[in-house]
Amino acid sequence: MTIKERIINSLIRAALDVVYKIDKSDLSRIPMKGPAILITNHVSNLEGPLFYVNLRPRKTIAMAKAELFDKFFTRTILSTWNAVPIKRGSIDMQAMKACFKVLEEDNFLCIAPEGTRSKTGKLIRGKAGTTFFATQKKVPIIPMVHWGLIDYEGSEKSLFRRKVTIKVGKPFYVEKKEEGKITSEDRQKMADEMMYQIAACLPEELRGYYSDMSKATTDYITFM
């Protein structure tokens, strides 16, 4: 870890600990070394710093929308953390190669299957394309969720010392168990099954599109 990264991590960790009361005890369920894919809900740009500094010393690299690299402040932090810029709406071969390298080097790749931030804090439907890395590299997938960063109830209460909770679910593999090419329909079903595992870690009121857990299937999932 560089001196620059140590300074940035220390400042961000201190700021988060001052503003929030963070229950991060569940992070002990994540191995100290990869490779693995961490999948999470996406409600705020703050979740990147929240996860990154609290997962250390685990080497974790996330994908981030390319627009975040346009601003000096966020570009400095994301570049220091080796985040992979993603051009949304197109096939970004350079980003894909960078993500594969993360896993090949036995690190953790963090992705948000929803593909965009939820404006309500509740889960929206996962994107089929986010299953690509899970099917190309047979590595464990670990659900890692959070809630409490954002107030969606219009509360006038101070944000100071708001409780933030991080929960970790059961690790699993994703694959097509029947012979044949993986179709777009397969990928959407895989994404939905991954999202149900995220939903299982969240409070019921935040499960959104995946609130009906009776619809959860494991046709493509094998638990470790």
In words, what does this structure look like?
The protein has helices at 3-19, 47-55, 72-80, 93-104, 132-136, 184-199, and strands spanning 20-23, 36-39, 60-65, 84-86, 108-111, 141-147, 162-168, 172-174, 221-223. It has a seven-stranded mixed sheet, with helices on both faces. A two-stranded antiparallel sheet has the order 8-9. The protein is built from six helices and nine strands; from the N terminus they run αββαβαβαβαβββαβ. By secondary structure, the protein is α/β, with parallel strands linked by helices. The two termini are 31 Å apart. The chain is globular. Helix 1 (3-19) crosses helix 2 (47-55). 30% of the residues lie in helices and 18% in strands. Strand 3, helix 3 (72-80) and strand 4 form a beta-alpha-beta unit. The protein has a single domain (3-223), classed as Glycerol-3-phosphate (1)-acyltransferase, CATH 3.40.1130. This is 1-acyl-sn-glycerol-3-phosphate acyltransferase. Its EC number is 2.3.1.51. Pathway: Lipid metabolism. InterPro entries: Plipid/glycerol_acylTrfase. Pfam families: Acyltransferase.
